[in-house]
Write a structure and sequence with these properties.
8-stranded mixed β-sheet; 6-stranded mixed β-sheet
């Protein structure tokens, strides 16, 4: 790996493996994946097409002291409980038209972790890329872990009508959860340029949170780096297709100007790390990118769909 000077000496083996599991699949609209320039409500209400099923990825980082998750997937209750989503008025219509989920009984977060040999009890930290419902679905299974979220995202959750912005408070504000709000601080670390703010999750330089707003105000990405290993960037919903991102295209959900700015920053970071593997939450190719990296070869169970 190049440009790894900020990784603390003596901590090069803290990460043992990185894997990905999928808590079911989701169909979305083509304009969701790639913006065609039309307003969100226009394409959402007029589109008659759905994409092929796309994964709902959860990234699993095995450290010497236990497991770290990036996102928690979709709750199976969303396909079994008719009251899981808003059902009335325009808000209910938006949720019905935005996504279609398929989640089998063995695709809960606990079951998916078990399928690759992990116990959910060993998860001690969860980083949420953002608070949309297909990223927070496993929270009820994680009351023993610390849940990390960006402060801007947390503040947005507590503004009026969060369900209109994809955040369902009844599935987020669960009793017994241990939340930690973080704010990336200014940094001059050349290893994360052009990003000028970052949050070192454990103070050893291996897991670094980067602010990547646009899809939501407080979207976070996670840079995973360790000497001798392929650097990884887990990006949530900044993109749904790495190749579209490489070409400068943005998805159709979010604030366009900030999405373009974030996309440019990530593409610049890719120039700093030529072997950087960018791992979105819903890119069908993400599991293959991880499997083909040094992390996938180390894990031996890199992708479980």
């Amino acid at each position: 790996m190049t440009q790894n000077a900020a990784v603390t000496p003596g901590t090069s083996n803290l990460i043992k493996a990185v894997s990905v599991v999928s808590t079911g699949t989701v169909d979305i609209r083509p304009q969701h994946v790639r913006s065609d320039g039309t307003p969100f409500l226009w394409w959402l209400m007029t589109s008659r097409k759905w994409t092929d099923p796309r994964p709902i990825n959860v990234y699993v980082i095995e450290r010497e002291d236990g497991l770290v998750l990036f996102d928690t997937g979709q709750d199976r209750a969303s396909v079994t409980d008719p009251d899981y989503f808003p059902t009335s008025g325009l808000t209910g219509l938006i949720y019905r038209r935005l996504a279609r989920f398929q989640i089998d009984p063995d695709q809960t977060l606990t079951a998916r972790l078990a399928s690759i040999g992990y116990d959910i009890a060993d998860v001690h930290t969860v980083v949420l890329s953002h608070l949309h419902q297909d990223h927070i679905g496993g929270l009820a299974e994680l009351r023993h872990a610390e849940i990390v979220v960006d402060q801007h995202e947390w503040d947005d959750l507590h503004q009026p009508n969060p369900e209109n912005r994809g955040m369902l408070t009844s599935h987020i504000n669960l009793p017994g959860l241990r939340w930690r709000q973080v704010t990336p601080r200014p940094t001059q670390d050349p290893a994360v340029a052009p990003f000028t703010a970052a949050h070192d999750l454990f103070g050893d330089g291996t897991l670094v949170l980067l602010p990547t707003p646009g899809h939501t105000p407080g979207s976070l990405s996670l840079l995973v780096r360790q000497p001798g290993a392929t650097p990884l960037l887990m990006v949530g919903d900044v993109t749904y297709d790495v190749h579209l991102m490489q070409d400068g295209h943005i998805p159709g959900v979010g604030e366009r100007a900030r999405l373009r700015e974030t996309t440019r920053a990530i593409n610049t970071l890719r120039g700093r790390y030529p072997d950087l593997a960018v791992l979105p939450a819903h890119d069908p190719a993400a599991g293959g990118h991880l499997s083909g990296s040094s992390w996938g070869k180390l894990a031996g169970v890199a992708a479980a769909s």
